[in-house]
């Protein structure tokens, strides 16, 4: 079991419960075995796991902060702004550095879908993982589900901006002031 302390406490319990329920729906929709939702932290310029299902501490630690340059499916989805499918992590050359973690977590395939705000900027990624490799085929995206995940994450961003009013110092260093906080 993963303790709440292992995940960054930037999401309210209400938002975490809602995202968890949406993640469960995504896992069922895709017929996956595991999954996680990551939120883009603009200050740290990477993805952090917000909610997850089925993973142990070593997976959480390995994917603690995923940057845009990372070869994982979620890193590529962040970079490209479009869904990424890795049919077999054991044969995908870009995923090589993560194979030991994937084997320990017992997954062989992953689909990562970027979560976009109303300006089509990536604000997070939903990834679902499979114990078996995926076959070739067309990817069906659960658009209403991913839109709802994005809306929930957007509310988290809005709440955090409100919480950082001039009289309330931020607990982290501020970013560079750009709209995305990332450069391609």
Main beta-sheet annotation: 6 strands, antiparallel
Individual helix count: 5
**Using DSSP, what is the number of strands?**
6
Instruction: Quote the average pLDDT.
Output: 80
User: Rough shape?
Assistant: globular
Query: What strand order characterises the main sheet?
Result: 3-2-1-6-5-4
Low-confidence stretches: 1-9, 162-184
Taken together, the total number of domains comes to: 1
Distance between the termini: 36 Å
Q: For the record, what CATH class applies?
A: Alpha Beta
Helix content: 25-40%
Beta percentage is 15-25%
Instruction: Name the structural class.
Output: alpha+beta
Radius of gyration, Cα only, in angstroms?
16 Å
Q: CATH architecture, please?
A: 2-Layer Sandwich
- SSE topology string: HEEHEHEHEEH
* CATH fold call: Beta-Lactamase
Per CATH, the superfamily is: GAF domain
Structure report:
The relative contact order is 0.18. The protein has helices at 13-30, 57-62, 73-80, 99-105, 143-163; strands at 34-41, 46-53, 66-67, 84-86, 109-116, 122-130. Residues 1-9 and 162-184 have low confidence and may be disordered. The protein has a single domain (4-160), classed as GAF domain (Beta-Lactamase, 2-Layer Sandwich), CATH 3.30.450. It is globular, with a radius of gyration of 16 Å. The chain has a 6-stranded antiparallel beta sheet with strand order 3-2-1-6-5-4, with helices on both faces. The longest helix is centred in the last third of the chain and has 21 residues, at 143-163. The protein is an alpha+beta fold and 184 residues long. The N and C termini lie far apart (36 Å). Helix 1 (13-30) packs antiparallel against helix 5 (143-163).
